[in-house]
Please model this.
Amino acid sequence: MPTSKTITFSWNGLTKKVKLLLCFSPPPDVQLGTDQNVVAWKVIVAQPGSSGCASIIYSGQVGFGNDEIGHGNIVASSSQIEITGGQKVKLITDADGDTRWEPPVSDPSLGQLFRAYNKTTTSRTISVGTMRVYSDGHKDYDPTFLWATVGPNMAAEAKVQPILNAYINLNYQKNQFITIDLSDDVMWSQNLSDLPENSSFVLVETKEHGYQIQPAADK
Model:
């Protein structure tokens, strides 16, 4: 069972409103571009003046989504399915004309990769993202990477590494498909596997260094 991580960001005395964009880093062997790229995972708005905080949860669970890209490149997922490393899944059109995911099946040749096949007759937009499944069966799905055009009988293949990057004031919204390279704008990066179940960080503003994210001091 994946270990859930709760990360809390706090701030105090900021002089301006700050938008903290959180996205996952792609594996080093993945070539990103306008057709396959990052999706804004979380956006935290830190208000100036008084203190504040926001917590995010990384479940460690992974899913694929069958998506549409709406106005402003916002990703809306019409159906999602949970999947684990070493599994593949097919997106099909059933006898009633509905598009749905078949149950995932194991494929030892994949190792820890995840693969989604488009077995419909038209090109599809497919994403991979974090999945949080609640005890009542409700699911929250947040896309992290997206393939804008996966043709019929083609596949999207993902390798998940939980390295979270932070960016300051880039003016993106949650679930927005980002078609440019953000690598030069990373101001903080953290492998979530290295964190305990609960961790805290502070967003700091200084005249000398601008904005920084630092581990919170133990109380």
Q: What stands out?
A: The longest strand covers residues 139-150. DSSP finds no helices and 18 strands in the chain.
